Amino acid sequence: MNRILSPERLTTLVGQFSRAPAYRGLRQAIQELIGDGRIPLGTRLPSERAVAEALEISRNTVARAYADLIATGFAIARQGSGTYAAVPLDRRRAHDRALHSRNTVPSSADGTIDLNCAAGGATPGVAAAYERALAALPAYLASDGYLPSGLPVLQALIAESFARRGLPTGAEQIVITSGALAAIAVVARALSRPGDRVMIESPVYPNAIEALRLGGGRPVSAPLADPFGDAGWDLDGIEATLRQTSPHLAYLIPDFQNPTGFLMSDPDRARYAAALQSTRTVGIVDEALQATALTDAPMPAPFAAHAPDAITIGSASKPFWGGLRVGWIRAPRSHIDRLVAARVQLDLGTSLFDQLVVTELFGAGDIARVRRTQLQQRRDALAGAIRDKLPGWRFRLPEGGLALWLQLPHGSATQLAADVEPAGVSLAPGPVFSVEGGSDSWLRIPYAKPEEQLVQAVERIAAVWSAAAQQPMRRRHAHVLIA
User: Model confidence over 396-413: pLDDT tens digits?
Assistant: First the structure.
């Protein structure tokens, strides 16, 4: 099903585009909107006549802008049907490398700084939690160790954490999984059938796209708003996408969205939830980054407080350590049996020992404070290095999450990721965060590594960036593993 962009909506999106000359300014504005996902791929653009009337320009101006979009690969003309948003084929191919095995990427032992993964070493205090968990383990060794729903004490702690945040939850509403990605796979298997449409934010966590596809879903992208604005989510566009495509599921990250870092406000959560309800779409709410707030500002209520039928996903990996493969699903009671049945088709339970470790870590406020201070320092070190070494790059400083979402002043992020690989830096270019491509002027740089590594990485990137400005374009293939 193709979506249709109204001329009024296009007028709002392009804003005050350059009119010197107008055709070029309009083409550049639309190309940027397609490139960063605010006009999703496959969307039918308004007719030339309708755009001309809405923008009060000549039809010839619109025709020339559309022709340039088609010539550069950012639109496709279909005889008798219209003009549709697209991206050049080579930018879509970035997805082919998104989930390659790490053995294609040089290891840190050779000096490579891996900035694909928004993860670093364990938070101080994790080792002590392992020691306490080991002491508690013998009490469980007489059992068979299979716990498809999870360790009861951990289920209760997670349920209590939701209740403290304003979402009453019983322990029986929690299913423990082997990480957030496994939780997404379980939900997709339990609640969707092959061919069901699944609305997914764009840009977004790329492994989620693949997990939902493997569950049989047909992704439908929903654009975020201006990356440098305050809104975060283009709710007008999301409502239009829901009306036009009626997806069965919708995947969203309202808490420090990955990769943009946006935090959805309570009013926007209420509006988004109402839009989902109007099309009977079940929200899959990824809260893996919810605990990574870097300020003392009050957090909004959980999204599920506005959408009672939503499925919420969480993880211990981001706040504590990536090696702790423990995640969870919080769901309405009516879905629990289906979720558990789907889960046992994948595995029979999460490592009991890891669950004991997370039980020890839950409620450890001192560890949370250490983690916050650590991430604040690393974020500020990365931001300072970019401002110093790459002053033309644009970014918005997030108040949580684990990464900066940066826009290059020119050129291709996919090309840059290939160019910096020989210099010992692995980067994740923007197209891997898009459902079908686009965002090639963007890249994500996590700040989970130590400050000295982040500064060194930026220095290497800056050297390659400067040298590339003096060289003709060339094609290489980057190998990317995203987390």
Answer: 999 999 999 999 998 889
